[in-house]
Design goal:
By secondary structure, the protein is mainly alpha-helical. Helix content is 60%, strand content 6%. It is built from 21 helices and eight strands. The N and C termini lie far apart (67 Å).
Length: 539
């Protein structure tokens, strides 16, 4: 168990003040009683603190999971009161699927989400959440099915902006940003407290400023009863998307915050922690939970030092429920929106994207991830970004680049002549090295480039091809290589292969055993063999 530091207390209590109204809001999205989200947040933070790794992750119900849960419940006929038992089953199924994914070591699939994708995801998600807070800052309802429609509705409806709400919200935001200069103070907690005091002293509600309002907290739970299989079967198509979106949002949050601070996290362990948290939520009849970005960013902004922050936040949430529920009812909605916006300004740092621009690598993937999350939502946005990164990878692999090698000085090293002016070609021998591993999508194209270069040198009858980039070959690449070899030998040329890995050597030996005599472990060995004039006959 990690040591509790002073900063963890401050961060945990600050986050607890954000968790309470968020939990109430997410329960409302799903059409559930507030206590189901509150209990889920409490046990989610406690269980993740026991099994998880991230010091910033706050595992609670999230807006995305609440929206999917609402769609799942709407797909089942009947009143919501008759379907609340299904929420428990959904949370349990989500937990079991997370645990199964961890057991099967499927966390490695997270490797398909590259760091530029994660950075773009974090940036886009921060922009999305901030834009969704604008209507609350202006004291008007959010209209629109997605964030772009909501932004359009917000700005086109500017005559309806409520000036007192804007003043309260921007005053709170300015105070939060100024208090960052005093990191030893719990800025978010102080601003929320000041907002409650101002609401009561200035009668902000009478001036049209929306308040969080009273929250019913009767801690009674529906009894588990018989559920028809048809109802469960109707929910199964939604359960996998729930798991995917929770993992996409949670892993994106955990990984991006960890990268920013040099922390180490593993996807399999996070899958296990999320599974355990969702099973615990099911036991207390709560909602599905994940590591939401707004709460994680608030934890980061408050200076969390260990994952004890989440546990302290859970305890703080219990204290708020027991002792301060009435006070939270007086919290102005614009102040709560300002707290969320201030917490997310960390994620708007453009330096990671500017670094990619400077390196001229993957900047469009990161921007695509950001734009995808903003335009399509969390799950579709990150799937779009992953597809974009895979397409960029395939484009790089399928675009042929072949280097002509020469000897460096009098040594045994062979390097690209185009990049090393002191490298010298070997008389009578052409040495080529594909810059990509050969596989089904590029083997013909790459080998055709080499064949075309050889045809431009009719006086050269000996060729060395370095296969150092190809750790293995698929059957299509092998067939292309054998056809290339046969074509050149039919034209009277001798072909040797250098830097051949053992797996490739074994594969070639199965297909054409005599070709093994032309395989070498280094370019220098292949050149020496070629200069000896050894010409074994292929069978």
């Amino acid at each position: 168990m990690p040591v509790i530091r002073a900063r963890d207390w401050i961060a945990g209590l600050s986050v607890a003040g954000l968790m309470f109204p968020e939990a109430v809001a997410y329960a409302g999205i799903a059409g559930l009683a507030p206590q189901r989200a509150i209990m889920a947040a409490i046990v989610g933070c406690l269980i993740y603190g026991a099994f998880g790794k991230s010091r910033f992750a706050i595992v609670t119900p999230t807006s995305s999971s609440a929206a999917i849960l609402a769609a799942m419940l709407a797909a089942v006929p009947g009143a919501i009161a008759d379907k609340t038992v299904l929420v428990t089953l959904i949370a349990a199924c989500v937990g079991l699927l997370f645990l199964l994914a961890s057991l099967l070591k499927l966390g490695n699939l997270a490797g398909f989400v590259s760091r530029p994708v994660l950075r773009g995801f974090a940036f886009g998600l921060a922009v999305t959440i901030i834009l969704r807070q604008l209507p609350a800052m202006a004291g008007m309802p959010a209209a629109g099915a997605n964030v772009l429609q909501q932004v359009y509705s917000f700005f086109s409806g500017w005559p309806e902006w409520h000036v007192p709400s804007l003043l309260v919200g921007f005053t709170a935001l300015a105070a939060l940003l100024l208090l960052r200069r005093l990191p030893f103070l719990p800025g978010a907690l102080l601003v929320r407290g000041a907002g409650i005091v101002a609401a009561r002293l200035l009668d902000l509600h009478d001036h049209g400023v929306a308040l969080v309002g009273a929250v019913p907290l009767a801690l009674t739970w529906p009894a588990l009863s018989a559920v028809r299989w048809q109802e469960i079967a109707g929910l199964l198509p939604y359960t996998l998307p729930m798991v995917l979106i929770l993992f996409a949002e949670s892993w994106g949050t955990i990984r991006s915050l960890s990268l920013r601070h040099g922390d180490t996290v593993t996807a399999d362990r996070e899958l296990f922690a999320l599974g355990a948290a969702n099973l615990a939520s099911a036991l207390v009849q709560g909602m599905p939970v994940g590591a939401g970005f707004s709460a994680g960013a608030a934890s980061e902004a408050a200076g969390a030092q260990s994952r004890m922050t989440g546990m302290i936040a859970a305890v703080g949430l219990v204290l708020i429920v027991v002792f301060a529920g009435g006070l939270v009812a007086s919290l102005p909605q614009p102040v709560l929106a300002a707290v969320v916006i201030a917490a997310l300004t960390h994620a708007l740092d453009p330096r990671p994207l500017l670094r990619l621009w400077t390196l001229n690598r993957d900047v469009f993937i990161a921007l695509g991830a950001a734009g995808g999350v903003i335009a399509f939502g969390v799950l579709d946005g990150i799937l779009f970004a992953v597809a974009l990164s895979l397409a960029a990878l395939l484009r790089r692999l399928a675009t042929p680049y072949v280097a002509c090698l020469g000897r460096l000085g009098e040594g045994h090293d062979f390097v690209d002549i185009a990049r090393h002016a002191d490298a010298r070609p070997i008389a009578g021998i052409a040495i080529w090295r594909p810059a990509q591993p050969l596989f089904f999508a590029n083997a013909d194209a790459v080998l055709n480039v080499i064949a075309a270069r050889i045809r431009e040198e009719p006086a050269t009858h000996i060729l060395v091809v370095s296969l150092e980039e190809s750790f293995d070959l698929d059957s299509t690449a092998l067939d292309a290589l054998l056809e290339f070899d046969a074509m050149l030998r039919a034209s009277g040329r001798t072909v040797h292969y250098a830097r051949v890995h053992d797996r490739v050597r074994d594969f070639i030996a199965l297909a054409v055993p005599a070709l093994v005599d032309y395989l070498s472990y280094s370019v220098d060995d292949a050149v020496a063999l070629a200069q000896l004039g050894s010409k074994p006959q292929l069978s």
